[in-house]
Design goal:
Elements: E1 2-6, H1 16-19, H2 22-29, E2 36-40, E3 56-59, H3 73-85, E4 90-93, H4 95-103, E5 107-110, E6 116-124, E7 127-135, E8 137-141, E9 147-151, E10 159-162, E11 166-169, H5 177-186, H6 194-202, H7 210-226
Parallel strand pairs: 1-2, 1-3, 3-4, 4-11
Antiparallel strand pairs: 5-8, 6-7, 6-9, 9-10, 10-11
Helix pairs in contact: 3-4
Length: 227
């Protein structure tokens, strides 16, 4: 199964030699599932020629806001709607979660409650799961087609399921300790309150359940391929 990774941002320059770019994080996360990957750097206006170029699509995180005025946003929203209408499986993470919701009629905004960074716990389908997060923007109004399947007190719409068409989550299963530590070092200061950055580092060595969410993402892709 060929998965097209729609890369909507880049890892910090200081981190890239160590961890790779955002697409590389997903290739590692989903390794072992017999997936073939192709990356399209949509943030740099590199788009697929057809939605049929891949069997499934995944949209990465980004430092940009879904509601901001960037050249890649309108064509990406059009692409999302094409993929969705064609019922090709679509997964979105963080910014990907947000831009899919926005393209399908939801609303994304900078959250008045501030940032969620580092290890967070969520109720996902009735089970507790711990994942790394790095966001201030949120889906504050979910599209009509979406069912909320994950949330916590800070983020009401933390995971959305659109029938068998799309599965999106706000936290980052692809972010390991090295990535979170690097973000706290290079993107946190001046943006995230110092107290929260200190809490991030205090929690760096606590376990997260990225493997559980990776398995759910892989299952979503595979089940849709067989449908």
């Amino acid at each position: 199964m060929k998965i097209g990774i729609l890369q909507t941002g880049h890892a910090p320059d200081e981190l890239r030699p160590q961890v790779g770019d955002f697409a590389d994080l997903f290739k590692r996360l989903l390794d072992g599932n017999d997936f073939e990957f192709h990356t399209y750097s949509v943030v740099d206006m590199e788009f697929p020629t057809s939605i049929s170029d891949c069997d499934g699509w995944l949209i990465t995180g980004s430092k940009h806001g879904a509601y901001e005025d960037h050249p890649f946003i309108p064509p990406l929203e059009n692409l999302i709607r094409e993929i969705y209408d064609a019922e090709i499986p679509l997964v979105g993470i963080c910014f990907g979660h947000q831009i899919i919701a926005q393209a399908l009629g939801g609303k994304v905004a900078k959250f008045d409650g501030g940032w969620a960074v580092g290890r967070q716990t969520y109720d996902l389908n009735g089970e507790q799961i711990a994942l790394n997060a790095w966001h201030q923007d949120q889906v504050i109004s979910a599209p009509a087609d979406a069912t909320v399947i994950g949330s916590n007190d800070f983020c009401t719409n933390a995971a959305l399921l659109y029938g068998k068409r799309a599965f999106t989550v706000q936290p980052h299963p692809e972010f390991d300790t090295a990535v979170i530590d690097g973000l706290a070092t290079y993107r946190g200061p001046g943006n995230v309150p110092d107290q929260q950055l200190a809490e991030v580092r205090d929690n760096l060595n606590k376990p997260v359940d990225s493997d559980r969410l990776a398995a759910q993402i892989a299952q979503f892709f595979k089940e849709r391929q067989l449908a």
